[in-house]
Amino acid sequence: MTQQYRITLLSGDGIGPEIMAVAVKMLERVGQQCDLTFDFQDALMGGVAIDATGSPLPDETLSICRQSDAVLLAAIGGAKWDSLPNHQRPERGLLGLRAGLGLFANLRPATILPQLIDASSLKREVVEGVDIMVVRELTGGIYFGQPRGIFETESGQKRGVNTMVYEDAEVDRIGRVAFETAQKRGGKLCSVDKSNVLEVSQLWRDRMTLLAKDYPDVELSHLYVDNAAMQLLRWPKQFDTIVTGNLFGDILSDAAAMLTGSIGMLPSASLGSAGPGVFEPVHGSAPDIAGQDKANPIAQVLSAAMMLRYGLNQPLAADRLEQAVMTVLDQGYRTGDIMSDGMTLVGCEAMGEALLKALG
Ligand code: IPM
Ligand code: MG
Question: Of the residues 10, 92, 95, which should be mutated to test ligand 1's pocket, given the most ligand atoms within 8 Å of the CB?
Answer without folding.
Answer: 95
